[in-house]
Amino acid sequence: MSKSHFGLIGLGVMGENLVLNAERNGFSSVVYNRTYSKTEEFLNARGAGKNIQGATDLKDFVDKLERPRRILMMVKAGPAVDAVVDQISPYLEEGDLLIDGGNSDYQDTERRVQQLESKSFGFIGMGVSGGAKGALEGPSMMPGGTKSSYDAIESLVSKMAAQVEDGPCVTYIGPGGSGHLVKTVHNGIEYGIEQILAEAYDLMKRVKGMSGVQMADVLAQWNATEELSSYLVEITEVCLRTKDPDDGADLVEKIMDQAGQKGTGLWTVVTALQMGAPVPTIYASLNGRVMSSIKQQRVHAEGILKGPAVIDFDLGQPGDAMAPLMDAVVLSCVASYAQGMELLRIASNDLDYSLHMPSIAQIWKGGCIIRSRLLKRIQDAFNSDPQLENLMIDPWFAEQVNRRLPGLAKVVAGAAEAGIPVPCFSSTLDYINSYRTGRLPQNLVQAMRDCFGSHTYKRVDQDGSFHTEWLN
Ligand code: 6PG
Questions:
Q1: The pTM is what?
Q2: Distance between Cα 187 and ligand 1 center (Å)
Q3: I want to staple 144 with a disulfide (CB 3.0 to 4.6 A). Which of 96, 178, 307, 470 is the partner?
Q4: Residue 1 covered by a domain
Q5: Known catalytic residue: 183?
Q6: pLDDT tens-digit readout, 234-250
Q7: How confident is the model at residue 309 (pLDDT cuts 50, 70, 90)?
Q8: Number of H helices, E strands in the chain
Q9: Is the pLDDT of residue 385 over 80?
Q10: Is 129 in the pocket of ligand 1 (CB under 6 A)?
Q11: pLDDT at 311
Q12: 74: domain range?
């Protein structure tokens, strides 16, 4: 058999689907999995009749690839990536290229790029989004590393990626770990939107007593609007409509209310705090998952800590797409994107990544989990001002904020009175109100810091650094 164009290590569902995608696009492939039985199983089933060969060990795998070798690793982020790199490195030759397609920490990717390039190999850290279906049919791909390494995979990834009206959903992101950083922030936004939709569901269910189908009908209306048309709204509608086959009840009501996480949302928040980027909506979504995980404590506390009885308040009518609730959802989604983009802008400066914001919006328009019609507006906003500090001050988004802020405030106030937690909605309201306030009360914080610790302060009316003996 002739040498293959492309190699894949790790036959999990994402790996299988990505290699089938590559093969469908004309790239003959070779696959390797730690357990050969898994490789055989794949070749006899989904890989049968395809231009895909199996390898029994890593030497065999490397021998079956044309040079320079292009090898995609789809293994669990963390030590497993280092282990594969160490195991395969002795067989690689100058110019060969490893691509890590998992959700790796961008700092690990920085290290690996340096480590591999010092041996004259290439290393690309590539975020891949879209779940199993996206991997097969066309994901959004976020590759980072040296430009020459990207050039070697461009023909491959631009065919494999989802296609939108202005091209494939892949671009060269930037150097080092930039591809994985962008994927991490993508996931932070993903956490935000998931929690926002969960809060909307909770209010419709608990305040209005709506059924799964009634809520799904509202989601369908939202999905037909420019502001909310998106993959996550679309699948939320499906989740809300789905019945338990055993008794025909809404299936979501049978699901344990504890959300897991694999790390990327946490990394988004930690990175943002380290870099001084405000991401309160995204942080609230992460904390929502953490609170959900302490189920036993919550059940215990429910009998001790008394809140108000849930009262009815204005969430709009199904006939008008639950207008104030829609305002809260739209602005919270806008805030999630705005915070993610601002974090990327700040990180790009801190890390010298030279991220091109319009291109990031462009490659998120298709294939990925946060794809939405709003991303076209985000792309336009950054195209008209590449230095845009915050999405919310772009004219189109500013009009949305100004028009929808009263609706968001009404929903947060009503939820507060009804004792229903809405962490993303309330964080978004505070975020917007803070962002549009020219003078915040941190002057008093500065006074306290100077009072007890002589930390000094700046004045609004004079240059320099000042200290006052406050307690004399
Ligand atoms: C994607 C997703 C995916 C992620 C899952 C799970 O873009 O396809 O972001 O990469 O791994 O959504 O994330 P959590 O388990 O942390 O929710």
A1: 0.97
A2: 6
A3: 178
A4: no
A5: yes
A6: 999 999 999 999 999 99
A7: confident
A8: 19, 9
A9: yes
A10: yes
A11: 84
A12: 6-176
